[in-house]
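Private note to self, pasted from the team thread so I don't lose it. Backbone tokens:
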């Protein structure tokens, strides 16, 4: 059984997604990504909030590129099948899938975690390339080089140990592992990596500076493929009768692309349509105190700003650079807002900061009713 090389897991998961009643076709992204294969721009990192479709896209890429199966019928009729490049890359590559949120049963130390990842790759390579099996290699990268083959890497939740504050003293070693595995390696035809936190904040030694990063603040290329557009949500509404589009807008409209087009959180839309009722869905998939976590630092001006936003006003702030999000406490107002934008708690466009929608408005109200926020709690309760 393969653990990460040419497995059928991506195919199975994407097949289930395609046959879901509320499936949205995002396959046009494949053409944009395929243009990067075996170029100097072959390193892509997508960092978006949770449940914005990152893993679904990864499964689609694995199903499309992986040579372990024939996916032509699965993609028949999807947008990518209408492109002239469709057959050029379909099922032509060895795909290594790494889900970095998977932990071994025993993981008391960083070595348990990293050895689990390395052993999964080694076992699959030895099984697929018997000629190098049993040889002593200094690293996984050396073993992959010895195959004299090319691989596409799809890496999910690259930032897992950072977000969960695991192995704090060894996080630099983890970055070095990824650098040694991927950077300047001839066997890397493409590396597509996803997470919530930007690479740049941890990349103090330029370990992963080969990646071009697309975040909630800076993404002019892949924005429409992570989240549902207004038109896509309207088409989904036509597949059921319980909810009208104006109800969906009232609850979930609020994120905005650089071109001004609206963007919706996919999980909330699908749950609302399947359940036939609008309520707060997305916020429940994160940590229980996710909103109040940032507010408890009580950075000067933040609580007053949020009171304004609870009244449906916007706040102007210029965020010129990306700060650390998720690892260290924010030091000022800009860092607090940057982190909350990255996590999807605020929408931000052309300097305008807002609470995106009714769903999150409710979560902010609930968080701020806690007595620890003093006069703010009283204002919210009133």
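Design output:
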């Amino acid at each position: 059984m393969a653990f990460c090389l040419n497995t059928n897991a991506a195919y199975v998961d994407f097949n289930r997604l395609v046959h879901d009643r509320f499936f949205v076709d995002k396959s046009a992204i494949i053409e944009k990504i395929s243009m990067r294969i075996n170029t100097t721009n072959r390193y892509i990192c997508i960092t978006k909030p949770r449940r914005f479709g990152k893993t679904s896209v990864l499964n689609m890429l694995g199903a499309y590129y992986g040579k372990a199966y024939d996916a032509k019928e699965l993609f028949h009729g999807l947008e990518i099948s209408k492109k002239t490049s469709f057959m050029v890359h379909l099922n032509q590559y060895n795909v290594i899938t790494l889900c970095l949120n998977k932990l071994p049963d025993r993981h008391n130390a960083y070595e348990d975690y990293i050895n689990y990842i390395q052993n999964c790759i080694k076992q699959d390579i030895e099984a697929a390339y018997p000629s190098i099996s049993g040889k002593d290699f200094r690293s996984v990268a050396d073993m992959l080089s010895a195959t004299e083959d090319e691989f596409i890497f799809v890496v999910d939740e690259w930032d897992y140990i950072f977000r969960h504050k695991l192995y704090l003293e060894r996080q630099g070693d983890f970055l070095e592992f990824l650098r040694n595995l991927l950077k300047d390696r001839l066997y890397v035809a493409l590396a597509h990596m996803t997470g919530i936190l930007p690479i740049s904040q941890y990349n103090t030694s330029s370990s992963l500076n080969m990646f071009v990063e697309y975040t909630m603040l800076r993404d002019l290329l892949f924005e429409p493929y992570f989240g549902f557009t207004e038109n896509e949500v309207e088409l989904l509404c036509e597949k059921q009768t319980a909810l009208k589009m104006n109800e969906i807008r009232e609850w979930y409209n609020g994120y905005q692309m650089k071109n001004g087009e609206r963007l919706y959180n996919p999980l909330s839309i699908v749950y609302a349509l399947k359940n036939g009722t609008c309520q707060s869905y997305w916020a429940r998939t994160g940590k229980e105190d996710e909103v109040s976590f940032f507010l408890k630092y009580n950075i000067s001006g933040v609580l007053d700003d949020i009171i304004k936003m609870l009244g449906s006003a916007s706040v102007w702030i210029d965020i010129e650079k990306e700060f650390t999000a998720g690892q260290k406490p924010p030091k000022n107002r800009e860092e607090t807002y940057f982190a909350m934008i990255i996590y999807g708690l605020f929408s931000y466009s052309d300097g305008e900061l807002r609470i995106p929608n009714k769903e999150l408005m409710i979560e902010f109200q609930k968080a701020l009713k806690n007595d620890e926020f003093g006069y703010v709690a009283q204002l919210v309760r009133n």
